[in-house]
Amino acid sequence: KKKTLPELDKYWKAVNEDPSDFTGWTYLLQYVDQENDAEAAREAYEKFLERYPYCYGYWRKYADYEKKKGNPDNVQKVFDQGLNAISLSVDLWLHYINHCKSVHEKDEAKMREQYERAIQACGLEFRSDGLWESYIKWEQEGKRLSRVTALYDRLLSTPTFGYMKNFQSFQEFVSANPPQRILTVDDFLTMRAEVKVLLKSDETPGAPPTDDVPPGEEPAAHEIPPTDEETRVIREKIMSSRRKMHKANANAVAARRTYEEGIKRPYFHVKPLERCQLKNWKEYLDFEIEQKDQDRIIILFERCLIACALYDEFWLRFVRYLESLTGDNAEKIRDVYSRACTVHHPKKPNLHLQWATFEEGQGNFDKAAEILENIDTVMPNLLQVAYRRINLERRRGDLDKSCVLYESYITNSKNRTIANNIAVKYARFLCKCKNDIDKAVKVLLKATEKDKDNPRLYLQLIDLGLQRNPVDTQEVVGYMDLFIEREHADLEQRVLFAQRKVEFLEDFSADIKQVLKAHEQFQKCIKQAKERKKSKNEDNKVDSSPPKKGKTSDTSSVPPPPTASSQSSYQYSSSASGPYQSQQQFQSGQYGSQSGYQQSYQQYPPPSDPNYANYQNWQYSQSGPQAYGPYNQWSSYNYY
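== Pre-mRNA-processing factor 39 ==
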């Protein structure tokens, strides 16, 4: 058995207990770095960099550690991982270039390929001067001066921190080398011809021919050195065109200098950024987007995400920008979401919900389901995530999986109110999507066993009964009686249910005695409610003067038997129904649906149910820009 390092468990314990303990990670890495256990060191570096991939300094240390162990393949692997994770790190690229020089010293093509990779990745970075200088110096040391000129042409049109120094270096380079060596053959001959015309010396040779040169061995045109005057004018023409580039570049730098000077922490750190720093990044992005240079905009977003990696608003803004571009940018958007959700924000439901919406929009239902399942595991009991998982399965036609999820969430819910909400949705789903009213009724009846006094559940049972064709009168009345006959049912709610029962039987019952019995029950409920209210007022010893009695006698409290003329538009007198009249006198004929009895019921919502209000709209709370319809920004998360 391999012997472990004596202090290793202690350092691992700290970061396992709190993976966000950045200082604990640094202590662990310091410890394994100084010990002679490559396996332990690799495990520590891999775990740390998996969590903090923007820490370029630790990629360097990891590569150096592998180099000390003498494993070139591992060194290359570490560099590849690091440069993929933080491709904008000029320091990491330079470290990698130096490594390549020691490995591919004589392979010019290989070295140039690595330099071009680096320039392509971060050459537009405002602080990339060091990388450009290294590339230019390498070409210059190889005496490939025309390539140096080509590099300067790219650099002089790139806004960087050292733009002035770069132009001065180019001036010195032009002055120190013959034009025919720093220009390509075609460029030199073209420019020399122009200069000769300018100097009116077309036929003037650079050096007088001698009779000593045999015919056919005369030097090529570009090998004939220009005269001193030609050299001076050619150099001036070279600098003239570059001055125009430099001037345009200087203007570009000046436009960005204020924003660049406002960036005090361009690297990643777990400590929060100051508000002024965040404001500066936002304004810089606004400016760059207005310039409409897509490459520079994307580079700036990537720079911003290094410094602001722990602020999800910048990740979302990058996604919105990519979505605004023409063409297929799905892979770029997917990459941004993946980095945000799997690395920097594994516990941000909003980001995961939007990523799942994106994948579903691309037709990747399996990936969307995987994303939602992952955030459901990491952040359990989020109602919005539960509904999204259920409805994703419904949208892709897997209704059985939706049922499994519904039942799982109802069973595992720790909050009775939320469990009821899910049960109501499940019942509606069974009724409307699976056409299984009987099972929907069973779901709600099971919910009433756990919450016998919740009016909403009984209202939904009534609504299900009304969905049958023909309507089973006894079934609907049975659901109403279940609540009315509850011993501890809220008296005001009992009045409303009794009123619903009267209205329903008026319209559907074939037995007038049943209707009259319902009237008597309704009046009994009103009387009990009034007595309860009076008793409560007396117990509270209310000192306010009693209200004046109305002139209307209470003899009308018992309604007369219904007549043929009154059955179609039966209304209760104000003294009979008192404060329990419905808002629409229940003339809509909908006794448990949203537009009828639920409107009456909403006068008395259960105070313990914060999610009750407007439940019939079946909407989730939300705020922010509607990038994804009802699935964009959640203002808060309800736990079940």
